[in-house]
Specification:
Helix 2 runs parallel beside helix 3 and helix 7 crosses helix 9. The termini are far apart. The chain is α+β, with helices and mostly antiparallel strands. A 6-stranded mixed sheet has the order 1-7-8-9-10-4, sandwiched between helices. The protein is globular, with a radius of gyration of 22 Å. It contains 11 helices and 16 strands. The chain has 2 domains: 272 residues, L-amino peptidase D-ALA esterase/amidase (4-Layer Sandwich); 118 residues, Ubiquitin-like (UB roll), CATH 3.10.20.340. A hairpin with a 2-residue loop joins strand 13 and strand 14.
């Protein structure tokens, strides 16, 4: 089947979708976009979702899980707000999420269970649901393909840039699109999703197929990102498939692998954007582990290195302190022989067989000053490899997070 190519677009580029965003006053910044609505006009829309594994889950996560089950994956709308996570807000928080879904459903002429809700922002602060309810009629009125681009900005919190990716291919001579938006810069270390990501496509498929494909794409992308090792209370990925391109994805033929490729491109592109835009980050860091004994060992080593504050601060200062890297590998719990380990940065060897490789300090410093860095650690313990995306830690990370609530 034809290849996928990245093109300009937004959530309404796939057929059947409209969207819009407004400033509802949830964020402290005056006139900042903070409320978005995404709608599929196709009655045949299928939906799938992935959620945080944090035991402390926000009210919109709990409600959306329920609605996906109640509707049997036929959800047609997403309401998302930023500026308030509606997490740890008790019964009032669940009522706010339910009221948001109910009013949205009335406005659109669909069932409340067909509405998915997502929130992001400060935890533990009651959500003024009236701010949302007052804007929903206006949001419905301005729903359009032209206004869909605003959604990516409306879900931002500490993000510096909006994150979006659209891909295009063809099936039976007709165009097929997949588009995704995401937000995330801090509290990123997901185990089934990322902070928030919404994906639309005009391909057609069943709910189980969409769920399986979304889970697979997330495993190779969003689950490979860590900024600070914290898993949010609100992590959510939603995918809606309108089916209006008439391209049907079914098990057992080339269409499944074809669509999975396009979906993975979208998710991996968004994941890289999240890592690059980490709070206060100046560098995208790709941690590649090779020669691990098992997949679990490879993952442990990669995440230990990617989450190490000592490694991340050394990277911020372009300090070729490879001892911190091998140290993180050592406490990860993976089994390997330290006397066989190699460590390199951008293909410059820093450590060979567990010892200093005699590298040029100035040259290594220049390599670490690049905006994109490849850290590679070879364990020589097996044949398994993996990759995790992360970023450096600068003083700006402390500045952002020392006053996030206030």
């Amino acid at each position: 089947m034809p290849q996928w190519e990245i093109v300009e677009g937004d959530l309404a580029t796939p057929l059947g979708f409209r969207a819009a965003a407004v400033a509802a006053g949830i964020k402290k910044v005056h006139d900042a976009l903070d409320l978005a609505l995404i709608v599929s006009d196709s009655p045949a829309t299928t939906a799938a979702g992935l959620f945080t594994t944090n035991r402390v889950a926000a009210s919109p996560v709990l409600l959306s899980r329920q609605n996906l089950l109640k509707s049997r994956g036929t959800c047609r709308a997403i309401v998302a707000n930023s500026g308030n996570a509606n997490a740890c807000t008790g019964e009032a928080g669940m009522q706010a999420a339910e009221e948001t879904a109910r009013v949205t459903a009335e406005l659109l002429g669909i069932e409340p269970a067909q509405v998915l809700v997502a929130s992001t922002g400060v935890i533990g602060v009651p959500l003024s649901v009236d701010l949302i309810l007052q804007q929903l009629p206006h949001l419905k009125e301005i729903l359009s393909r032209e206004n869909a681009h605003a959604v990516a900005r409306a879900i931002m919190t500490t993000d510096r840039v909006p994150k979006t990716c659209t891909v295009r291919s063809e099936a039976r001579g007709r165009p097929v699109h997949i588009c995704g938006v995401a937000k995330g810069a801090g509290m990123i270390s997901p185990h089934m999703a990322t902070m928030l990501s919404f994906i639309t496509t005009d391909a057609a498929m069943g709910e189980r197929m969409l769920s399986n494909l979304l889970e697979g794409a997330a495993e190779g992308s969003f689950n490979r990102v860590t900024v600070d090792g914290d898993t949010s209370t609100n992590d959510t990925v939603f995918a809606l498939a309108s089916g209006l391109s008439e391209s049907i994805v079914i098990p057992g033929n080339d269409s499944r692998a074809w669509f999975a490729e396009g979906l993975t491109i979208v998710c991996q592109t968004l994941a890289r954007m999240i890592a690059r835009d980490g709070e206060g980050a100046s560098k995208l860091v790709i941690v590649e582990v090779a020669g691990a004994r098992t997949p679990r060992d490879a993952d442990r080593v990669a995440r230990a290195i990617a989450n190490s504050p000592l490694v991340k601060t050394a990277l911020a200062g372009a300090d070729p302190n490879w001892g911190r890297i091998i140290c993180a590998a050592g406490y990860s719990g993976a089994i390997f022989d330290p006397t066989k380990v190699d460590v390199s940065v951008n293909n410059m060897m820093l450590c060979r067989q567990g010892l200093d490789a005699g590298f040029d300090e100035a040259a290594a410093h220049r390599e670490l000053e690049q905006s994109e860095i490849l850290l590679r650690i070879h364990l020589h313990a097996g044949t398994v490899a993996t990759t995790v995306l992360t970023c450096d830690f600068t003083r700006d990370y402390i500045d952002i997070n020392s006053s996030y609530r206030t």
